[in-house]
Sequence to fold (308 residues):
Amino acid sequence: MKIIEAKKKDINCIIKMNKEMADYHWKIDNYYKSGREIEFGFKKWILKNFGKRNFKILIAKEKNKILGYGIAEIKKPKPYIRPKKIGHLTNLYVKEKYRRHGIGRQIFDKFLEWFKSREIKHIELSVDSRNQIGISAYQKYGFFEYQKKMRMDL
Amino acid sequence: MKIIEAKKKDINCIIKMNKEMADYHWKIDNYYKSGREIEFGFKKWILKNFGKRNFKILIAKEKNKILGYGIAEIKKPKPYIRPKKIGHLTNLYVKEKYRRHGIGRQIFDKFLEWFKSREIKHIELSVDSRNQIGISAYQKYGFFEYQKKMRMDL
Fold:
């Protein structure tokens, strides 16, 4: 198994995994769009950013199978945040049957190398509060919660 | 005491309260900029948005004293969110010595009327996880946590 940068030919497979991830969230809370609903916009967003210096897609590949993927970005944070640039872990997904083998961790470690090479000192991510799998994994990687996003449905 | 829309002449007082709020966060975590550091950008942002249809500043005023203020916006949410527009409670601040008199609640209720008149069905806000005063107040208003923002400092 190796962690490598995605090529254009991997995009369809990444879109498929992103749909699975969207459906997972949509089942938790239909405030989120379903996989089918996000597909078009996600593809457009990927194609617009593919190959840019502050955007990176990694895939975990074994033989010819893609087992998971991640997307990370280097961004300007909100204006009230001190650092001038931060790393952002935008997506991290491992297909269900390949979980619990440390694949997510290996993808993250590769992003960490990238962030360090770009002199990033702070990494952020957002996770649904009911996604206990995600929260536990991110805590193990060394993340801590620092903000809550709250919502009211009228 | 009355809750009214801010006028241009109130901006300096709002900037002063915003600096107090920034300093509160900066003392919790110096990942946030201090009051002095955010002042200039905040003023620019206020002046750019003042009077716009999707932007509203309310103040709580008694005689000639401003006791607190709030800023709310109507926005397009992130692309993976179902509703086409959401309400956003961007700032809500009551000066320390006027707290525990329901002033924040009255400001929020006025925003709620505005959101309803604009057919908003969902309101979001972000709050620091260590700001227990804010979290408790927002829960009382009817907000629930649905996402966590996590961070790693390298």
Q: What stands out?
A: Chain A has four helices and six strands. The radius of gyration of chain A is 16 Å. Chain A has one domain: 2-141. Strands of chain A lie at 2-5, 55-62, 65-75, 86-94, 122-128, 144-153.
